[in-house]
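Quick entry between incubations.
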Amino acid sequence: NAGVTQTPKFQVLKTGQSMTLQCAQDMNHEYMSWYRQDPGMGLRLIHYSVGAGITDQGEVPNGYNVSRSTTEDFPLRLLSAAPSQTSVYFCASSSSGTGETQYFGPGTRLLVL
Amino acid sequence: LAKTTQPISMDSYEGQEVNITCSHNNIATNDYITWYQQFPSQGPRFIIQGYKTKVTNEVASLFIPADRKSSTLSLPRVSLSDTAVYYCLVAGLVFTGGGNKLTFGTGTQLKVEL
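Done. Structure below.
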């Protein structure tokens, strides 16, 4: 099993550009989530999904969109990138609820100029 | 969602036992306590999980008193490679919707020196 994979590893964007961060898992997990981590801070929940077709907002959802058309994939879209979105983004999955062991991807480092 | 409080940082030396305590006064009956470890430029990694009393695995021990309002992660004989950020999380195992969202605090930065 590859676990949780994320692409790209690193990306530079200009303000106003859009992009999609990809996340995929091969563990047949129902629960997936996106976090952002800023320097010296913990992880903050952006959006999460409890199954295909079901998504909800986390702590810092503004500026981000998600969809969950399959169990395996949970892409995160930035519609109009802003410098404040410069961060490291982690995707995670678990078999059921939020307290279950979360498996994290390697992260995507995003720089918005 | 139960809020957690941990020390911001801790220092130790190789070979010592390190205990990191987390306070979670508002823990709910169905909440479990989970600890994660994060190295720089990596995603967090599961260390240990428990509900009450003591849990031990090959990496750490978790002590939870009867009132469950706190928990202590114990790392025996730490080495330089244990330098990382440690997060304490409290949440139910089954998603119940609404506020049951897993959130991380700032964690405890453990620094191990020679």
